[in-house]
Amino acid sequence: MTHSRSPVLHSFWLDETGVDGAYVPLPARPQHLEQALRALPILGFRGCNLTIPHKQAALSLVDRVEPLARRIGAVNTIVIRPDGTLEGRNTDAFGFRESLRDAVPAWKATAGPAAILGAGGAARAVVAALADVGVTEIRIVNRTLARAEAIACDLATPKTSITVYSWEEVGVALRFAGLLVNTTSLGMVGEPALTLDLTPLPPSAPVVDIVYAPLETGLLAAARGRGHPVVNGVGMLLHQGRPGFEAWFGTPVRVTHELRAAILATLAPVQ
Ligand code: ATR
After folding, report:
1. Nearest-angstrom CA–CA distance, 133 and 221
2. What's the pLDDT score for residue 95?
3. Which ligand 1 atom is the nearest neighbour of the CA of 183?
């Protein structure tokens, strides 16, 4: 939580909109999460965000879970309703969708299969977002096949097929794909590099890395070199905050150049 950018993000919007409020980091141990959440309405909070390791546990602690959060299997945003009850939502899928739309407006769900690297919590949100915008074939590449199979089981629909690939088969997953998204931690500062032969990926396919430290990962640098549209993880980080702010304070907010600059300034030391 100490590395969370959410306080900077929401404080920026509070200043910009003139809303009289504060966004504060609140550490909570897993065994105290329920008590901590139940205290929020009493203390006058409108809601909160949850970060690792609380996102899954919150599903069974809140009074109502929005269907999308249930499908994804994680709650990252809680809205406190006027009667003091807690509603769990997931805004990561929205954040991914809006970030892609912002960065590559020309991309369409009909561009071809989407290849997703990774099968953790972030992958589940990305897969849900892509299924919801109408991608009909999603290919998940993951080290642990059982996790990818669980996503296929939970998130495939009559309109969206989900198939699972091992890393040895990644070249097959990239063939004719219309989008590539890295949701693994590979390529992040302090993690092993993500080395991938992009040759099978059609050059028109956008390459998205949800990692934002460093801003330009090895994957994005390689993709840029081959002429792919590239999208870094900052957009998703910013856009996922919007639905929470709007629900808590009833005021719409935007992702502006000024906001990006403010967040990038906080990321600079880790680039
Ligand atoms: P998050 O919730 O942020 O998605 P996560 O659930 O820990 O985080 O998922 C991390 C992803 O990175 C997983 O897909 C993980 O693969 P496994 O499911 O096999 O664990 C992937 N990952 C992390 N380190 C990896 C490595 N060294 N090699 C391959 N995949 C890796």
Report:
1. 27
2. 98
3. 4
